[in-house]
Amino acid sequence: MGAPQRWLSIAAVALLLCPGSAWSAPSPTVTPAADGPKRSIRLIEIDSSINPATADFIRDSVLLAEQEQAAALVIQLDTPGGLLESAKAIVKDLLGAPVPVLVYVAPSGSGAVSAGVFVTMAGHIAAMAPGTNIGAAHPVNAGGDNIQGDMRTKVENFTATLSKSIASERGRNVEWAEKAVRESVSINEREALEKKVIDIVAVSLDDLLRQAHGRKIKVQQREVVLDLANANIVRGEMPLKQQIIDVLANPNLAYLLMMAGMLGLYVEMTNPGLIVPGVAGAISLLLGFAAMQVLPINYSGLGLIGLGIALLVAELFLPSFGVLGVGGLTAFVLGSLLLFDGSVSDLRLLPSLVYAAAAAFGAFTIVVGLLVVRSHKAKVALGSEGLIGQSGEVRRAIGGGRSAGKVLVQGEYWNAVAGEALEVGAAVEVVRVDGMVLEVRRKA
Question: What is the mean pLDDT of residues 430-437?
Answer without folding.
Answer: 85
